[in-house]
Amino acid sequence: MNEHVDLKRRYLLAGTAAATGLIASGIRVHAQDNPLPASVDWKDPEAMIVHSNNTLETRRDAFGTSLITPEDRLYIRNNVSPPDASILDDRDAWEVAIEGVAEPRTLTVGELKTMGVDTVTMVLQCSGNGRAYFEHEPSGTPWQVGASGNVMWTGVPLRKVVEALGGAADGAAYVTGTGGETIPEGLEANDVLVERSVPVDVLDTILLAWDLNGEPISLAHGGPLRMIVPGFTGVNNVKYVKTVALTAEESPAAIQQTRYRLQPVGESGGPEHPSVWQMNVKSFVTAPLESASAGMVQVTGVAFGGINAVDSVEVSVDGGETWEAAEFIGPDMGRYAWRTFALSAELAAGTHMIVSRATDSEGNVQPEEFEPNDPGYNHNGWRAHGVEVTVG
Amino acid sequence: MNEHVDLKRRYLLAGTAAATGLIASGIRVHAQDNPLPASVDWKDPEAMIVHSNNTLETRRDAFGTSLITPEDRLYIRNNVSPPDASILDDRDAWEVAIEGVAEPRTLTVGELKTMGVDTVTMVLQCSGNGRAYFEHEPSGTPWQVGASGNVMWTGVPLRKVVEALGGAADGAAYVTGTGGETIPEGLEANDVLVERSVPVDVLDTILLAWDLNGEPISLAHGGPLRMIVPGFTGVNNVKYVKTVALTAEESPAAIQQTRYRLQPVGESGGPEHPSVWQMNVKSFVTAPLESASAGMVQVTGVAFGGINAVDSVEVSVDGGETWEAAEFIGPDMGRYAWRTFALSAELAAGTHMIVSRATDSEGNVQPEEFEPNDPGYNHNGWRAHGVEVTVG
Asked: Is the reported ipTM for this assembly greater than 0.90?
């Protein structure tokens, strides 16, 4: 291995090293009890599974009934090490270049804050959430359900910024965000750069956000400024965003061209394969997870539609033989948010496989099995996400 | 002063001792910088004004854009010292007696959790929030705007519990909740007891709640079980609830009979005066609060309807001479929740009095001035809640 590759390997954070005990057939996966990384020692240690310094997921039993995932329980996945924390010293001074508009300009966060403000509640979910449930054992972090959370972002609508700068230049087909991570010397920028392009038709939903759950965004989650693309997987929500460009083409960065592609198992990713963009409909049970007392039980979980609103969810306590409609409880926080569901079920002593199956507003239903892709993205098959509960 | 009275005075926590610098004309009130009490040292010290060990409010600049007030920023007001923290050692073992039903029973929290589950987002607000803005200087904690928050409660609907126990007994006119605080020897129970009655016609909205913002309720906020009455002021949401009774009469406790009454200034409270129950429509600005740069500014705040949904809010940057409709931003979390509002305003250099005025779904509008009551409850006058901002 030459020095270049070795450096790259160390720089691009591997997520798999810390995970142990993967059972490919699904249901149960344990990561070893790693301590919290020093950089995020403010996370709730009881709530997190630490796969590596830059890959932490929320334990399934830590979602509780909250409709909002607190920042100290929210998963972390960084493709590249974050910039130095000093970028948060003066948040309002952070600069973002707006390109591909009639009057390109660099704006500070302080300026953005005067231009408009909106809040969106949305599921933030890693593209690889559920990877542990693929049977072909893809490389990458074996996320179970907890590389996801329901969070609130506050910032300026990108639409207002584009309008203030004279509107989009001709030929804009993508919104391309560039992250502020440092490119180490000796590496090709396009190999490392976190630069993602999403179709321009979602421009009106994008926020340039400075607050997460009402407080300034932490470094781990992309502060001082993050490009938020509701309904799109985590990687498309570019952290420390330093350039937002309306572009005719997708970014040439590897993270856009060859990574985060849905190629068949055994193939390498490339522009000919679909990009990992919009999320699909999904749900999972959050209680009970292991055991319960015989009799009446409240089965609870979360459900979301991804790019669409979630419409309904059914629960089965017999592994999918029979289904009952669950009720959504608590407020509907909008199209991109998840909802909590509950079903009263009478459980007899024995073993029960509890599964849930959501339907979105377009009639898309979670499939029983999910067609695998090589890198292990977008898993929403209901059977693999089920839980086996011992009732006594 | 005899020993009885002295003990009572020490036991009933006074809220005024720590407050200094009250300016009766409104606008600015400073409490001295007291440290956080040891019992709630997990509160965010930057976010809180500490009036006393049992009266803490959220700073107006600490609400930010969050639609949910984190528990570590939520105000505290205890009428009586909480029970020993050991009551949280086994939360599911906490018992609540359900009375005034066909088949009265004592149920554990563990049993309640099997009977049903729902979540409500609501404004929790102390009856005396805004007391600092009354000109007659009522006794009691001089709350400004921060004895309020927007929080999520999860628990079992009381309706389901009552149904499971055979339904309400004949003649039920009130739901009466009794708190689990210890009554010290030498005191009359009815002088100290936290026992509140609310009209039975809101029974269907009541929750017996074990979670606050998705996590078990802290002792300070009423865990392990709190009776939640959406749209009613804080005192009606009985902490450590140990009895819930459907009763023909209101509680004989002083907190129901003579306190929390809306008597005219200078009079003592009694059953002939209206009880402090449903909250009224209200809003306040949260930014900018002191200064801003000339030019475009985003004026933000929160608005709620109390017992009703909030319908709209207007903002004036000239002390009420002219008004503009603000926009609600972020999700509508239901009838009892607050909404965040924003207005883009062009501010010239100088001093601006920024005020907001909300209207609820029934057409009730915040008044310019609020008719005072002796104890200083329910203030929702828009002028007194305004902020003076220096623009330069």
From this structure: no
